[in-house]
Write a structure and sequence with these properties.
By secondary structure, this protein is an alpha/beta fold. It contains five helices and eleven strands; from the N terminus they run E-H-E-H-E-E-E-H-E-H-E-E-H-E-E-E. It has helices at residues 41-55, 94-111, 167-181, 198-213, 251-260; strands spanning 31-36, 59-64, 115-118, 144-145, 151-152, 185-189, 228-232, 244-248, 274-276, 282-284, 288-295. Strand 6 (185-189), helix 4 and strand 7 (228-232) form a beta-alpha-beta unit. Helix 1 packs antiparallel against helix 5 (251-260).
Length: 309
Amino acid sequence: MSTPQYPQACTVTKGAVDSLLPAGRAPGDARILWVHAHPDDESIATGGSIAHYARTGASNVLLTMTRGERGEVIPAPLGHLEVGQPGCPDTDGTALGLYRVGELDDAAAALGLSDRFFAGETPAFDESVGFANGLGRYLDSGMSWGDNGRAQPAEDVSSAALTSATEDEAAAHVAAAIREVRPHVVVTYCDDGGYGHPDHVRTHHVTMLGIDKAKRPADGAEAWDVPLVWGTEGDVDPADQRQQAVISGDLDAKRAAMAAHATQIVLPEDASETFELSNGVPQRLTATEHYRLLSGDLNSGDLDSGDRS
C-alpha cells in the first residue's frame, strides 16, 4: 500500500463567494444543516465554517449518520475500544461508538452547534421506513487503503453498516430531518466524499436523495425545498465549473473541536498548522474551507417563500 492520499489545499477560483447563505438571508435568521458521516468529520472538514456561522447568530444543526464505530483508536489507554484489539468488549464497535458520542458532544460545544443528532434519532427518523438492520441506527462501514493511496471499502462490512442499507432507506431519515429543521442551507460532501471514504460517498448520495424526498410532505410533515446545497471540496479539479464558496472560519474553535476527538486526531501542542489521524500522515490544519454548489441558484434570492421562522 502506498502512503494514504488526502485532498491538497484548494485553489480559490475566480468568482468564488464568501458566504454559504442565499441572497438576502441574514446570518442571524439562517438555519444550516450539516450532514456528516462520523464524529470528527464535522470538525475536520467544516469546523471553521460551523464556528463562523455560530458566531454570526445562525442556527447550526448537525446530522451524523454513524457513531464512527470502526475508527482506529490512537491513545494507548483507550486501545481496548478498537474493534479487534485485546480487551475490546464487542465486535461491532458499540463501545467505541458510545465513547465517540461524548467526544462529539464536546466538539459540538466548542463549535457552538445549536443542536445535533444521529440518523435514527428524532428528527432524523422516518418511522414509516425504519431500519432494515433492526438496530435503529447505522454502523460505521469502515474502510481500507488501496495500493493507489485512496480510500476504498473495508474487507469486512457489517450488514448493519451505512453502506449496507439501501440509499432510499437512509435518505428517508435525512428527509425527515430536513422537513423538521427546514434549513436554508444543507452542507455535506461532494460526490467523492472528500477522500473517498465509503461512508462519506454514501452520505453525499443519501443527502442529495433526502433533499429531493423532502420536497414532498410525509406523515403530516410539510414539504421543504432547500434553497442551497453545498459540498465540501475534495481534490482540486481545474475543470470544475460549479460555483465555489470559501469560508474563512474560526481556527481556535476548530482546533478546540478537533482536540475533543482525541481517539481519532493528534494535534501538536505547539499550535502547528498540521494534524494527524491514526496513520500518522500530516494534514494541513486550516479554518479556510472550500465548498462547491451542488444545488440551488445564488442569484435567485432566498427561495423559501413559505418560511416559518
